[in-house]
Structures are given as C-alpha cells and as structure tokens.
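thought: user wants a sequence for this fold. calling inverse folding tool.
action: design(structure=
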C-alpha cells in the first residue's frame, strides 16, 4: 500500500509561517515541488495549523504530504525537538497538548519583553504580534524580527547574539511537558516520534529516556550534520532498531540555508518510517482493544 508511493526525492523537515518559517504552507510545498520533491513533511514547531493548506497544495501537485509536527521538550537542561510523523491532526489529546504549549509561549513572551525592558529596550507586544501569522505560536524568531523592525538591532543574527541566544540576557528557558508526556501524546495521535538533529544535543543524558518513552527514529540527515556524523547516526539508529529520516529544516529567513529538497534523501529510504508507523498503529489498536 503506502510503500508503493515512495519514489523520487523527499524532504521531511520543513517550516512555514505558521511557526517560525517565512513563507506560507502553500509556497513551501510549491518550492519543494519545483526542487523535485515527491514526499514531504511540514514540521512546524508546536502547531498543526499549516497542514490543511499544505495538504491542498500537495494534492494539487500530486505530492505525498506526511502530516507532522516538531514538538519542543525540555530535559536535562536541553531544549530537544521531537518530530512526529503521520499524526492525526484532529486528535483531541494532541490539540490539548499544543494549546498548552501555545499558552506557555505567550507567558514566555511576556517574560522576554520584561527582560528586554530591564536592558533598556522598550519593545511592545503588538510589535512582536505583527510578526506572527494568525493562529501561529509566538517564538524567539518573532521577537528577533520585531527587534529588527523597530530598529533596535541591525539583523536577526544580532538580535540572537546580543539578547535571545540560549543563556542570553533576554532568553527565557522554555517550560514544557516531559519527554514521557510528549512522546505519549505523539504515540496516542498515531505519530512516529523521531529525534530531530540529534548531533546538536548531548545525547548521553537523554537517549535512554527517549528510547524508553517510545522514540521510533532519528534524523540522520540534516544541514548541520557533516557526513561523518550522518554515518555515526545511521549506525546508532541501526543498533537500536530505529528508523532514519532527514530533511532541510528550511525556514526561509536565514542568509545561508539549504532550500527544500536540496539534501539528497531518496523517498525509498522512507520504508523504515512506514514500518514504524505500522507498528505505532498496531500498538494503538492493541491498547484500545485491551490486549
């Protein structure tokens, strides 16, 4: 069934302006299509708002869209990102989880603006909200854009370097549900949980917790990872029986950034992801049947 559709190029990590990307879902899908992508995933941070528009455009172009999300999870003093593939975007548990994350982002924005005021920078909440698409969750990138728009800094890099980087004077640490709660929500919604850009974390303190909580894959191909790292991650995935994914992590507003479809990821490599999805669905069926 599903495996027969996998052919051509894939990009399983794309962002739109429904989270911190620059372009609407329709445009991101069109860009991917022009690059020869046949299978793609819109993985906005903590929201599924962009999926209906992306699905409509993908259908128009004869592409396969995998409904997905990128969840933020804080653990062991690290901000981890968990990709969830093949989710049910209308799942009540998932929607409640995303609503709680959105509320937390609003609280975090208030604290960030308060810290900026303490540094002598008056930035109105309205200025930040102007940078956020309707229905989207507010994040650091929107604050950075507002700082640029209001003339406080020259560019996004300066905004992060001076104020918003991890540990920066205006950075507020995310408070999120635990690894266990977050993966349970994804599995309940039928999603395959995959660790995004694993090379950017200290894996030792969190990996076993992720595995125990139901992690099903790792992102082995990512622009931030050199080839040697990809080889190491592939070997890690195989030794733990995890599926392997990859994508450009395209946002659209960075100077040096890989565009959709620019990484060589063949759709045929997605067989492992499909098998992982079948196992998640089967596990859910058994649980619901009380087996």
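)
observation: tool returned 291 residues.
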């Amino acid at each position: 069934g599903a495996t027969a559709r996998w052919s051509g190029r894939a990009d399983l990590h794309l962002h739109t302006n429904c989270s911190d990307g620059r372009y609407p879902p329709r445009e991101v899908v069109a860009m991917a299509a022009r690059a020869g992508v046949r299978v793609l995933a819109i993985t906005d941070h903590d929201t599924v708002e962009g999926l209906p528009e992306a699905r409509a455009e993908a259908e128009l172009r004869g592409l396969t869209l995998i409904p997905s999300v990128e969840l933020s999870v804080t653990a062991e003093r690290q901000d981890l990102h968990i990709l969830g593939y093949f989710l049910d975007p209308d799942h009540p548990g998932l929607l409640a989880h995303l609503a709680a994350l959105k509320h937390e982002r609003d609280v975090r924005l208030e604290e960030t603006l308060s810290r900026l005021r303490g540094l002598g920078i008056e930035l109105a909440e309205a200025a930040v909200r102007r940078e956020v698409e309707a229905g989207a969750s507010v994040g650091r990138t929107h604050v950075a854009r507002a700082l640029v728009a209001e003339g406080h800094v020259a560019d996004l890099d300066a905004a992060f370097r001076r104020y918003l980087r991890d540990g920066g004077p205006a950075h507020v640490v995310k408070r999120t549900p635990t690894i266990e709660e977050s993966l349970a929500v994804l599995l309940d919604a039928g999603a395959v949980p995959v660790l995004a850009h694993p090379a950017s974390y200290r894996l030792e303190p969190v990996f076993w917790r992720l595995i125990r909580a139901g992690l099903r894959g790792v992102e082995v191909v990512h622009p931030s990872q050199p080839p040697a790292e990809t080889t190491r991650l592939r070997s890690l995935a195989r030794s733990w029986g995890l599926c392997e994914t990859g994508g450009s992590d395209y946002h659209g507003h960075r100077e040096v950034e890989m565009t959709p479809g620019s990484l060589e990821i063949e759709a045929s490599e997605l067989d492992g992801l499909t098998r992982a999805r079948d196992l998640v669905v089967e596990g859910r069926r058994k649980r619901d049947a009380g087996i």
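thought: summarizing for user.
answer: Here is the designed sequence. The chain has a mean pLDDT of 91.
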